[in-house]
Design brief:
This protein is of the alpha/beta class and 168 residues long. It has a single domain (5-166), classed as HAD superfamily/HAD-like (Rossmann fold, 3-Layer(aba) Sandwich), CATH 3.40.50.1000. The chain is 33% helix and 14% strand. It is globular. The structure holds magnesium ion (MG) and zinc ion. Zinc ion (ZN) binds at residues 90, 92, 105, 107-108. Zinc ion is lined by residues 90, 92, 105, 107-108.
Length: 168
């Protein structure tokens, strides 16, 4: 039985995008983000984070930093009765300095690789799924994967979803 999924960009959607956020000390929740994840959980969506983390290729921080931050994020959500089903991140960047990550890839948005990977690994109905991002590259990745994209430009994420996703 395939399920709807919500694909959430991280920086600029779940947390304020301050540029290369990689420590919980710099992590500031977007208003309504936790309630939004919980609501999608309750509506029986699969909830995925799909985030470009080119800072790994650029050696601004490590893959372990990203994993640690995501574990912390998950535990904070869990305290509020919400959860992310899986985090997907792209560690690549063509202009990076870490050799193993400094190449063209099929996962860095606007490529749809992370969304397609989730659809391979989970019972996702892409046609009924939604992506929320704050950049045109998020919308392009959504389009290429065949999911409906909504551009979030700040404000309260829960209100945004009530208007764009849950009422349509
Ligand atoms: Mg973003
Ligand atoms: Zn990649």
């Amino acid at each position: 039985m395939l399920k709807r999924a919500i694909f959430l960009d991280r920086d600029g959607v779940i947390n304020i995008d301050r540029g290369y956020v990689h420590r919980k000390e710099d992590f500031c929740w977007v208003d309504g983000a936790i309630e939004t994840v919980r609501q999608f959980n309750e509506l029986d969506y699969l909830v995925f984070v799909v985030t470009n983390q080119g800072g790994i290729a650029r050696a601004f921080y490590t893959e372990q930093d990203v994993l640690d931050l995501h574990n912390w994020l998950q535990s904070e959500l869990n305290k509020q009765g919400a959860h992310i089903d899986q985090f997907y991140y792209c560690p690549h960047h063509v202009e990076g300095s870490v050799p193993e990550h400094s190449h063209v890839c099929s996962c860095r948005k606007p490529e749809p690789g992370m969304i397609l990977a989730a659809a391979q690994e989970w019972p996702v109905d892409l046609n009924r799924s939604v992506m929320i991002g704050d950049k045109p590259s998020d919308m392009e990745a959504a389009k290429r994967a065949g999911v409906t994209g909504y551009l979030f430009c700040g404000g309260n994420l829960f209100e945004f979803c009530r208007e764009k996703v849950w009422n349509s």
